[in-house]
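[SOLVED] Need 3D model of a two-part complex

Original post:
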Amino acid sequence: MWYPIAATQDLPFRHVYHAKLLGQELAAWRADDGFVNIWENRCLHRGVRLSIGVNTGTELKCQYHGWRYANRTAGCTYIPAHPDRAPPRVIANRIFPCAERHGLIWSSLEPPAGEPGSILADAVETLVLRGIAVHAPAALVTHALAKIQTGAVVFVQPVDTANCVIRGIVAPAPAPDIRMRALRHYNHLFSAVRDDIERAAGTE
Amino acid sequence: MITLYDDVLSANAYQVRLLLSMLAIEHTTTFVETTPGREQFSPWFRGLAPLGGIPLLDASGVLIHDSHAILVYLAAAYDSSKSWYPVAAGPAVLAAITEWLDFGRRLCATAGAARLHDSLFQPTDIAASRRNAGQLMRILDEHLWFGEQQGDEWICSLPHPTIADLACFPHIILCEEGGISRQETPAIRRWCDRIKRLPGFVVMPGVFSAG
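Solution:
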Protein backbone atom coordinates (compact mmCIF):
# COMPACT_ATOMS: atom_id res chain seq x y z
CA MET A 1 0.00 0.00 0.00
CA TRP A 2 1.22 3.48 -0.92
CA TYR A 3 1.78 6.01 1.84
CA PRO A 4 3.03 9.59 1.54
CA ILE A 5 6.40 9.85 3.29
CA ALA A 6 7.35 13.42 2.35
CA ALA A 7 6.34 16.45 0.34
CA THR A 8 8.02 17.29 -2.96
CA GLN A 9 9.47 20.39 -1.29
CA ASP A 10 11.13 18.15 1.32
CA LEU A 11 13.61 17.00 -1.34
CA PRO A 12 15.42 20.17 -2.41
CA PHE A 13 18.72 20.30 -4.30
CA ARG A 14 21.39 17.95 -2.85
CA HIS A 15 19.44 17.19 0.32
CA VAL A 16 18.93 13.80 1.98
CA TYR A 17 15.53 13.43 3.66
CA HIS A 18 15.15 11.25 6.73
CA ALA A 19 11.87 9.32 6.72
CA LYS A 20 10.29 6.41 8.52
CA LEU A 21 7.41 4.24 7.35
CA LEU A 22 5.87 1.42 9.42
CA GLY A 23 9.02 1.24 11.51
CA GLN A 24 11.34 1.12 8.49
CA GLU A 25 13.88 3.97 8.36
CA LEU A 26 14.31 5.47 4.90
CA ALA A 27 16.75 7.86 3.25
CA ALA A 28 15.14 9.75 0.37
CA TRP A 29 17.08 11.94 -2.04
CA ARG A 30 16.57 13.56 -5.40
CA ALA A 31 19.44 13.23 -7.87
CA ASP A 32 20.28 16.14 -10.15
CA ASP A 33 18.47 14.38 -13.02
CA GLY A 34 15.24 14.61 -10.98
CA PHE A 35 15.02 10.94 -10.01
CA VAL A 36 13.86 10.33 -6.44
CA ASN A 37 15.63 7.50 -4.61
CA ILE A 38 14.10 5.89 -1.53
CA TRP A 39 16.49 3.51 0.17
CA GLU A 40 16.91 1.68 3.43
CA ASN A 41 18.55 4.22 5.75
CA ARG A 42 21.63 2.15 6.35
CA CYS A 43 25.07 1.96 4.81
CA LEU A 44 25.92 -1.62 3.81
CA HIS A 45 29.40 -1.22 5.25
CA ARG A 46 28.99 -0.25 8.91
CA GLY A 47 25.26 0.42 9.20
CA VAL A 48 25.51 4.19 9.63
CA ARG A 49 22.40 6.14 8.60
CA LEU A 50 22.63 7.31 4.99
CA SER A 51 20.38 10.26 5.87
CA ILE A 52 23.47 11.98 7.34
CA GLY A 53 25.35 11.27 4.10
CA VAL A 54 26.14 13.54 1.19
CA ASN A 55 23.95 13.88 -1.90
CA THR A 56 26.49 14.57 -4.67
CA GLY A 57 23.81 14.90 -7.34
CA THR A 58 24.60 11.51 -8.88
CA GLU A 59 25.52 9.44 -5.83
CA LEU A 60 24.87 9.21 -2.12
CA LYS A 61 28.10 9.15 -0.12
CA CYS A 62 28.19 7.71 3.40
CA GLN A 63 29.67 10.04 6.04
CA TYR A 64 31.53 7.27 7.81
CA HIS A 65 33.98 5.69 5.34
CA GLY A 66 32.86 7.27 2.09
CA TRP A 67 31.17 4.33 0.37
CA ARG A 68 29.22 5.67 -2.61
CA TYR A 69 25.90 4.41 -4.00
CA ALA A 70 24.56 5.24 -7.45
CA ASN A 71 21.41 7.14 -8.32
CA ARG A 72 18.61 4.80 -9.51
CA THR A 73 20.36 1.42 -8.98
CA ALA A 74 21.65 2.00 -5.40
CA GLY A 75 24.67 -0.04 -6.46
CA CYS A 76 27.93 0.65 -4.65
CA THR A 77 30.26 2.50 -7.03
CA TYR A 78 33.29 3.25 -4.90
CA ILE A 79 34.97 2.03 -1.72
CA PRO A 80 37.73 4.46 -0.65
CA ALA A 81 39.67 1.71 1.17
CA HIS A 82 40.04 -0.12 -2.17
CA PRO A 83 40.61 2.69 -4.67
CA ASP A 84 41.89 0.38 -7.42
CA ARG A 85 39.09 -2.19 -7.27
CA ALA A 86 35.55 -1.91 -8.59
CA PRO A 87 33.07 -2.87 -5.87
CA PRO A 88 31.34 -6.24 -6.41
CA ARG A 89 28.01 -5.87 -8.20
CA VAL A 90 26.15 -7.64 -5.39
CA ILE A 91 26.73 -4.62 -3.12
CA ALA A 92 23.56 -2.64 -3.66
CA ASN A 93 21.33 -0.91 -1.15
CA ARG A 94 17.73 -1.91 -0.61
CA ILE A 95 15.38 0.16 -2.79
CA PHE A 96 11.77 0.97 -1.93
CA PRO A 97 9.04 1.91 -4.44
CA CYS A 98 8.68 5.61 -5.12
CA ALA A 99 6.05 7.77 -6.76
CA GLU A 100 5.76 11.53 -6.87
CA ARG A 101 2.17 12.68 -7.20
CA HIS A 102 0.04 15.64 -6.10
CA GLY A 103 3.10 17.28 -4.54
CA LEU A 104 3.78 14.32 -2.27
CA ILE A 105 6.43 11.60 -2.31
CA TRP A 106 4.89 8.15 -1.88
CA SER A 107 6.44 4.86 -0.90
CA SER A 108 5.59 1.38 0.25
CA LEU A 109 7.37 -1.44 2.06
CA GLU A 110 6.13 -4.07 -0.38
CA PRO A 111 5.40 -3.90 -4.12
CA PRO A 112 2.24 -1.75 -4.10
CA ALA A 113 -0.87 -2.27 -6.19
CA GLY A 114 -2.18 0.58 -8.32
CA GLU A 115 -1.37 4.27 -8.21
CA PRO A 116 -0.89 6.37 -5.07
CA GLY A 117 -3.46 8.97 -4.08
CA SER A 118 -5.61 8.07 -7.06
CA ILE A 119 -8.67 9.90 -5.74
CA LEU A 120 -7.44 13.05 -7.53
CA ALA A 121 -6.74 13.72 -11.19
CA ASP A 122 -3.11 14.47 -12.01
CA ALA A 123 -4.06 17.69 -13.75
CA VAL A 124 -5.39 19.24 -10.54
CA GLU A 125 -2.97 21.73 -9.04
CA THR A 126 -2.58 21.09 -5.33
CA LEU A 127 -1.46 23.01 -2.29
CA VAL A 128 0.64 20.76 -0.06
CA LEU A 129 0.13 21.47 3.64
CA ARG A 130 2.77 21.29 6.32
CA GLY A 131 3.16 17.74 7.58
CA ILE A 132 2.32 17.48 11.27
CA ALA A 133 4.15 14.78 13.24
CA VAL A 134 2.03 13.26 16.00
CA HIS A 135 3.24 11.07 18.85
CA ALA A 136 0.30 8.68 18.55
CA PRO A 137 -0.63 5.64 16.45
CA ALA A 138 -1.90 6.36 12.93
CA ALA A 139 -5.24 4.65 13.62
CA LEU A 140 -5.97 6.97 16.54
CA VAL A 141 -5.19 10.07 14.46
CA THR A 142 -7.18 8.84 11.46
CA HIS A 143 -10.13 8.33 13.79
CA ALA A 144 -9.84 11.86 15.21
CA LEU A 145 -9.52 13.42 11.75
CA ALA A 146 -12.61 11.58 10.52
CA LYS A 147 -14.67 13.52 13.07
CA ILE A 148 -13.83 16.96 11.66
CA GLN A 149 -14.69 18.61 8.36
CA THR A 150 -11.40 19.96 7.01
CA GLY A 151 -11.98 20.64 3.31
CA ALA A 152 -8.56 19.10 2.65
CA VAL A 153 -7.58 15.67 1.38
CA VAL A 154 -5.84 14.17 4.40
CA PHE A 155 -3.49 11.18 4.60
CA VAL A 156 -1.94 9.76 7.73
CA GLN A 157 1.56 8.33 7.31
CA PRO A 158 2.19 5.53 9.82
CA VAL A 159 5.74 6.23 11.03
CA ASP A 160 5.86 3.38 13.53
CA THR A 161 3.48 1.88 16.08
CA ALA A 162 3.52 5.03 18.24
CA ASN A 163 3.99 7.85 15.70
CA CYS A 164 2.45 9.21 12.54
CA VAL A 165 2.41 12.29 10.30
CA ILE A 166 -0.71 14.12 9.14
CA ARG A 167 -0.18 15.03 5.47
CA GLY A 168 -2.81 17.08 3.73
CA ILE A 169 -3.35 18.62 0.34
CA VAL A 170 -5.88 21.15 -0.82
CA ALA A 171 -7.16 20.61 -4.37
CA PRO A 172 -7.58 22.66 -6.36
CA ALA A 173 -4.99 25.00 -4.88
CA PRO A 174 -6.43 28.21 -3.43
CA ALA A 175 -5.73 31.56 -5.10
CA PRO A 176 -2.20 32.94 -4.50
CA ASP A 177 -3.44 35.80 -2.33
CA ILE A 178 -4.94 33.44 0.24
CA ARG A 179 -2.28 30.72 -0.04
CA MET A 180 -0.40 31.66 3.14
CA ARG A 181 -3.64 32.07 5.05
CA ALA A 182 -4.74 28.59 3.98
CA LEU A 183 -1.40 27.08 5.01
CA ARG A 184 -1.64 28.77 8.43
CA HIS A 185 -5.24 27.67 8.83
CA TYR A 186 -4.53 23.99 8.23
CA ASN A 187 -1.32 24.08 10.25
CA HIS A 188 -3.34 25.43 13.17
CA LEU A 189 -6.15 22.91 12.65
CA PHE A 190 -3.92 19.82 12.46
CA SER A 191 -1.67 21.06 15.28
CA ALA A 192 -4.76 21.33 17.48
CA VAL A 193 -5.70 17.72 16.61
CA ARG A 194 -2.14 16.68 17.49
CA ASP A 195 -2.15 18.59 20.78
CA ASP A 196 -5.48 17.10 21.88
CA ILE A 197 -4.37 13.56 21.14
CA GLU A 198 -0.92 13.94 22.68
CA ARG A 199 -2.28 15.65 25.79
CA ALA A 200 -4.72 12.79 26.32
CA ALA A 201 -1.94 10.24 25.80
CA GLY A 202 0.71 12.18 27.71
CA THR A 203 3.15 12.01 24.77
CA GLU A 204 3.50 15.71 23.91
CA MET B 1 44.28 41.04 19.42
CA ILE B 2 41.51 38.48 19.94
CA THR B 3 41.82 35.48 22.22
CA LEU B 4 39.05 32.90 22.55
CA TYR B 5 38.97 30.80 25.70
CA ASP B 6 37.55 27.66 24.25
CA ASP B 7 36.66 24.05 24.88
CA VAL B 8 36.32 21.97 21.75
CA LEU B 9 33.24 20.15 23.12
CA SER B 10 31.35 23.34 24.07
CA ALA B 11 28.29 24.01 21.91
CA ASN B 12 28.22 27.63 23.08
CA ALA B 13 31.85 28.15 22.12
CA TYR B 14 31.03 26.60 18.72
CA GLN B 15 28.71 29.56 18.03
CA VAL B 16 31.72 31.84 18.39
CA ARG B 17 34.08 29.61 16.40
CA LEU B 18 31.59 29.67 13.53
CA LEU B 19 31.40 33.47 13.41
CA LEU B 20 35.18 33.87 13.84
CA SER B 21 35.65 31.59 10.85
CA MET B 22 32.87 33.02 8.71
CA LEU B 23 34.20 36.55 9.23
CA ALA B 24 37.82 35.32 8.89
CA ILE B 25 38.84 37.04 12.12
CA GLU B 26 42.43 36.42 13.16
CA HIS B 27 42.61 35.13 16.70
CA THR B 28 44.38 32.84 19.11
CA THR B 29 42.74 30.13 21.19
CA THR B 30 43.41 29.19 24.81
CA PHE B 31 42.06 25.76 25.65
CA VAL B 32 40.12 25.39 28.91
CA GLU B 33 39.41 21.78 29.87
CA THR B 34 35.87 21.78 31.24
CA THR B 35 35.50 17.98 31.20
CA PRO B 36 36.82 16.29 33.20
CA GLY B 37 39.17 19.04 34.44
CA ARG B 38 36.52 21.63 35.45
CA GLU B 39 39.19 24.18 34.61
CA GLN B 40 36.55 26.87 34.06
CA PHE B 41 36.12 26.96 37.84
CA SER B 42 39.85 27.18 38.55
CA PRO B 43 41.13 30.33 40.31
CA TRP B 44 43.04 31.53 37.23
CA PHE B 45 40.00 31.32 34.95
CA ARG B 46 37.57 32.68 37.56
CA GLY B 47 39.88 35.67 37.74
CA LEU B 48 38.92 36.39 34.12
CA ALA B 49 35.33 35.10 34.18
CA PRO B 50 33.71 35.14 37.62
CA LEU B 51 30.78 32.97 36.43
CA GLY B 52 33.20 30.37 35.13
CA GLY B 53 31.68 30.12 31.67
CA ILE B 54 33.03 29.01 28.33
CA PRO B 55 33.39 30.74 25.91
CA LEU B 56 35.20 33.88 27.03
CA LEU B 57 36.55 36.42 24.57
CA ASP B 58 39.45 38.73 25.29
CA ALA B 59 39.37 41.53 22.70
CA SER B 60 42.53 43.56 23.42
CA GLY B 61 41.73 43.58 27.11
CA VAL B 62 37.94 43.85 26.81
CA LEU B 63 36.57 40.66 28.39
CA ILE B 64 33.24 39.36 27.04
CA HIS B 65 31.66 36.53 28.99
CA ASP B 66 28.68 35.16 27.12
CA SER B 67 28.43 33.51 23.70
CA HIS B 68 25.62 35.80 22.57
CA ALA B 69 27.43 38.91 23.80
CA ILE B 70 30.51 37.71 21.92
CA LEU B 71 28.46 37.23 18.73
CA VAL B 72 27.10 40.77 19.04
CA TYR B 73 30.57 42.15 19.69
CA LEU B 74 32.27 40.35 16.81
CA ALA B 75 29.49 41.18 14.35
CA ALA B 76 29.49 44.85 15.38
CA ALA B 77 33.28 45.12 15.31
CA TYR B 78 34.31 42.98 12.35
CA ASP B 79 31.42 42.42 9.93
CA SER B 80 31.95 44.94 7.15
CA SER B 81 28.74 43.74 5.44
CA LYS B 82 26.78 44.65 8.61
CA SER B 83 24.57 41.63 8.00
CA TRP B 84 25.18 39.32 10.95
CA TYR B 85 23.85 41.87 13.45
CA PRO B 86 22.03 44.19 11.06
CA VAL B 87 21.41 47.35 13.06
CA ALA B 88 20.26 49.14 9.92
CA ALA B 89 17.49 46.56 9.37
CA GLY B 90 15.47 48.28 12.08
CA PRO B 91 14.07 47.73 15.56
CA ALA B 92 11.76 44.82 14.65
CA VAL B 93 14.66 42.78 13.28
CA LEU B 94 16.86 43.52 16.30
CA ALA B 95 14.00 42.51 18.60
CA ALA B 96 13.50 39.29 16.60
CA ILE B 97 17.21 38.50 16.83
CA THR B 98 17.09 38.96 20.61
CA GLU B 99 14.04 36.71 20.85
CA TRP B 100 15.87 33.98 18.96
CA LEU B 101 18.99 34.40 21.07
CA ASP B 102 16.75 33.64 24.03
CA PHE B 103 15.33 30.69 22.12
CA GLY B 104 18.90 29.47 21.64
CA ARG B 105 19.43 29.71 25.37
CA ARG B 106 16.35 27.56 25.90
CA LEU B 107 17.72 25.02 23.42
CA CYS B 108 20.94 25.00 25.44
CA ALA B 109 19.01 24.33 28.65
CA THR B 110 17.10 21.41 27.10
CA ALA B 111 18.76 19.81 24.06
CA GLY B 112 22.16 20.97 25.32
CA ALA B 113 21.52 19.54 28.78
CA ALA B 114 20.42 16.22 27.27
CA ARG B 115 23.64 16.06 25.27
CA LEU B 116 25.82 16.77 28.30
CA HIS B 117 23.85 14.16 30.24
CA ASP B 118 24.35 11.44 27.66
CA SER B 119 27.89 12.20 26.55
CA LEU B 120 29.53 13.78 29.60
CA PHE B 121 27.43 12.32 32.43
CA GLN B 122 26.14 15.64 33.72
CA PRO B 123 23.03 15.22 35.88
CA THR B 124 19.71 16.41 34.48
CA ASP B 125 16.08 15.28 34.26
CA ILE B 126 16.74 13.60 30.94
CA ALA B 127 13.10 12.82 30.06
CA ALA B 128 12.05 16.44 30.69
CA SER B 129 15.06 17.80 28.80
CA ARG B 130 14.23 15.72 25.73
CA ARG B 131 10.51 16.49 25.90
CA ASN B 132 11.08 20.24 26.26
CA ALA B 133 13.69 20.23 23.51
CA GLY B 134 11.19 18.46 21.25
CA GLN B 135 8.60 21.18 21.92
CA LEU B 136 11.13 23.91 21.08
CA MET B 137 12.16 22.11 17.91
CA ARG B 138 8.55 21.91 16.78
CA ILE B 139 8.34 25.69 17.16
CA LEU B 140 11.55 26.26 15.22
CA ASP B 141 10.55 23.79 12.49
CA GLU B 142 7.20 25.51 12.06
CA HIS B 143 8.88 28.93 11.94
CA LEU B 144 11.40 27.80 9.33
CA TRP B 145 8.75 25.97 7.25
CA PHE B 146 6.56 29.06 6.97
CA GLY B 147 9.66 31.12 6.24
CA GLU B 148 10.49 28.80 3.35
CA GLN B 149 6.98 29.25 1.99
CA GLN B 150 7.73 32.97 1.67
CA GLY B 151 11.20 32.42 0.23
CA ASP B 152 13.11 32.89 3.50
CA GLU B 153 16.05 30.63 4.26
CA TRP B 154 17.10 31.93 7.67
CA ILE B 155 15.59 32.44 11.10
CA CYS B 156 15.03 36.15 10.56
CA SER B 157 13.18 37.26 7.46
CA LEU B 158 16.27 38.66 5.73
CA PRO B 159 18.14 37.53 2.62
CA HIS B 160 21.12 36.45 4.76
CA PRO B 161 21.77 34.66 8.07
CA THR B 162 22.21 36.52 11.36
CA ILE B 163 23.71 35.72 14.75
CA ALA B 164 20.28 34.25 15.63
CA ASP B 165 21.03 31.34 13.28
CA LEU B 166 24.45 30.79 14.85
CA ALA B 167 23.02 30.93 18.39
CA CYS B 168 20.54 28.12 17.66
CA PHE B 169 22.51 25.93 15.25
CA PRO B 170 25.04 24.24 17.62
CA HIS B 171 22.40 22.95 20.04
CA ILE B 172 20.28 21.69 17.14
CA ILE B 173 23.05 19.98 15.17
CA LEU B 174 24.35 18.22 18.31
CA CYS B 175 20.92 17.21 19.65
CA GLU B 176 21.23 13.59 18.53
CA GLU B 177 24.07 13.21 21.04
CA GLY B 178 21.35 13.77 23.64
CA GLY B 179 19.03 11.17 22.13
CA ILE B 180 16.84 13.72 20.32
CA SER B 181 16.09 12.95 16.67
CA ARG B 182 15.59 15.54 13.94
CA GLN B 183 13.55 13.13 11.84
CA GLU B 184 10.28 14.91 12.78
CA THR B 185 11.62 18.35 11.87
CA PRO B 186 12.46 18.34 8.15
CA ALA B 187 12.54 22.14 7.84
CA ILE B 188 15.19 22.21 10.58
CA ARG B 189 17.20 19.60 8.67
CA ARG B 190 17.12 21.71 5.50
CA TRP B 191 18.14 24.82 7.47
CA CYS B 192 21.09 22.85 8.91
CA ASP B 193 22.17 22.02 5.34
CA ARG B 194 22.03 25.70 4.40
CA ILE B 195 24.16 26.72 7.38
CA LYS B 196 26.69 24.01 6.55
CA ARG B 197 27.04 25.47 3.05
CA LEU B 198 27.85 29.00 4.25
CA PRO B 199 31.35 30.20 3.37
CA GLY B 200 33.68 29.67 6.31
CA PHE B 201 31.57 26.96 7.95
CA VAL B 202 33.65 24.81 10.31
CA VAL B 203 32.82 21.50 11.97
CA MET B 204 33.34 20.30 15.54
CA PRO B 205 33.29 16.79 17.03
CA GLY B 206 29.84 15.35 16.29
CA VAL B 207 29.15 17.68 13.34
CA PHE B 208 29.67 16.66 9.71
CA SER B 209 30.27 18.95 6.78
CA ALA B 210 27.70 19.16 4.01
CA GLY B 211 30.24 17.61 1.62
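Edit: Chain A has a mean pLDDT of 93.
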